[in-house]
């Protein structure tokens, strides 16, 4: 539709002139549009060159389903840009005052509503194309919590994190159950959590909880301390994708072979009453190629311990496979995700100041109590991390396009 046809439509005369200077999409999104065009051109070239390979053919078909929406977004962007230029000319040069005012109104609607919506849709479709959401994100998860630096105070912090995720799961209506729990005893009546493994089931659990993987830090005055000194302690969280029930066989075939496993049985250790050290119920499962070791002794049944050990091993190997894929994508400059290094401190819980800071995006919120209760503050942090990841993906594409010029 031409600008002249739009101006001839019956529309109420505006009571005031809109601000037509807010057209940041003209300058800020130019590089993104150029990168999207170049990516589509390269995609067409690579698809025709590798059409004979079955895996490449499947990938090509998958991408073609997401290419069309992106092409439509670019076409709509071009149409709106052309229309905006026509309206700008009318708004500045038309001798009719009413026509100039209507043109300004239409131009304002494009700049503030239609064009931003188109750009948002384009970004979403572009991300789906160059960095599709892994299937594992829709699965359930295993969450491992381990006390870190800080002695018994670190154990108390690990207990707090376990409570946080339990309350979060309740709010999200996820099913949660402990797989393994080991306590730390201080000898002063101050018991804490040394290590725990939680199984959390529900849709998109891993896709959400993956942001919790890393080193968490707490700053607070320890329990029963006579002074007011603030102590710093840490706890680590590992989040692993958990295969849905009934898919274990297929997952095993893809992740490991039985000949690569070493299964050992032994007597359980630690507190546990007369049963401990009487039967060989404990299980140690080792994946020899990667050196991954799983030790399980929580149940008195060797069979149950073996099942749980296999479940955790599958989750760890699947997580390893996903992280290797992230590294490959980064090397291809198609995806860069900061969260792959778990040794980095990701979040600080500051009790004296009542705030929580996520260091990956520099976000500080004065809502410590809410996040400890598993409230919606954690959703705000996750949304910020999602947007940061999307920005990195798009920046990486733009950077690649600039280098290849």
From TrEMBL:
Nucleotidyltransferase as UniProt keyword? no
Q: What would be one Gene Ontology cellular-component term for the protein?
A: mitochondrion
Which keywords are on file for this protein? Methylation, Protein biosynthesis
- Any single Pfam family the record assigns to this protein: RF-1
Which residues, by range, are in coiled-coil regions? none
Q: Which domain of life is it from?
A: Eukaryota
SMART domains attached to this UniProt entry: PCRF (SM00937)
Per the UniProt entry, what is one GO biological process?
A: mitochondrial translation
Stretches assigned to the Prokaryotic-type class I peptide chain release factors domain: 267-283
- A GO molecular-function term, please? translation release factor activity
Q: Which InterPro entries match?
A: PCRF, Pep_chain_release_fac_I, Pep_chain_release_fac_I_sf, Prokaryotic/Mito_RF
**Keyword Protein biosynthesis in record:** yes
Q: Which family does it belong to?
A: Belongs to the prokaryotic/mitochondrial release factor family.
Q: What is this protein called?
A: Prokaryotic-type class I peptide chain release factors domain-containing protein
**Species classification:** Eukaryota, Fungi, Dikarya, Basidiomycota, Pucciniomycotina
């Amino acid at each position: 539709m031409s600008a002249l046809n739009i101006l001839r439509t019956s529309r109420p005369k505006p009571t005031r002139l809109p601000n037509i200077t807010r057209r940041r999409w003209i300058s800020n999104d130019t590089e993104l549009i150029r990168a999207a065009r170049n990516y589509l051109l390269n995609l067409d070239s690579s698809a025709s060159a590798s059409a004979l390979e079955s895996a490449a053919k499947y990938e090509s078909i998958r991408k073609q389903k997401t290419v069309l929406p992106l092409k439509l977004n670019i076409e709509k962007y071009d149409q709106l840009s052309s229309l905006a230029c026509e309206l700008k000319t009318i708004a500045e040069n038309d001798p009719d005052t009413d026509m100039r005012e209507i043109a300004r109104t239409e131009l304002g609607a494009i700049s503030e509503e239609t064009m931003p919506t188109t750009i948002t849709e384009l970004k979403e479709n572009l991300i789906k194309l160059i960095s599709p959401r892994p299937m594992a994100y829709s699965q359930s998860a295993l969450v491992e919590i381990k006390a870190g630096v800080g002695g018994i105070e670190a154990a108390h912090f690990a207990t707090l994190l376990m409570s946080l995720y339990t309350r979060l799961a309740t709010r999200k209506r996820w099913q949660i159950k402990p797989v393994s729990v080991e306590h730390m005893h201080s000898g002063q009546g101050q018991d804490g959590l040394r290590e725990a493994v939680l199984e959390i089931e529900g849709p998109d659990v891993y896709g959400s909880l993956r942001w919790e993987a890393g080193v968490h830090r707490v700053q607070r005055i320890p329990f029963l301390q006579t002074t007011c000194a603030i102590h710093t302690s840490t706890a680590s969280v590992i989040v692993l994708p958990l295969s849905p029930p009934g898919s274990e066989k297929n997952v095993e075939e893809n992740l490991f072979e039985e000949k690569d496993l070493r299964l050992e049985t032994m007597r359980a250790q630690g507190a546990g009453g007369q049963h401990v050290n009487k039967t060989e119920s404990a299980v140690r499962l080792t994946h020899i190629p990667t050196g991954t070791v799983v030790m399980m002794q929580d149940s008195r049944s060797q069979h149950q311990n073996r099942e749980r050990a296999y479940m955790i091993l599958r989750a760890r190997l699947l997580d390893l496979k996903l992280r290797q894929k992230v590294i490959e994508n980064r090397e291809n400059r198609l995806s860069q995700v900061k969260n792959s290094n778990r040794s980095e401190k990701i979040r600080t819980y500051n009790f004296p100041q009542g705030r929580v800071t996520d260091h990956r995006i520099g976000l500080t919120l004065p809502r410590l109590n809410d996040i400890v209760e598993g409230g919606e503050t954690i959703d705000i942090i996750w949304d910020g991390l999602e947007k940061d990841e999307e920005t990195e993906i798009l920046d990486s594409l733009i950077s690649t396009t600039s280098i290849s010029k």
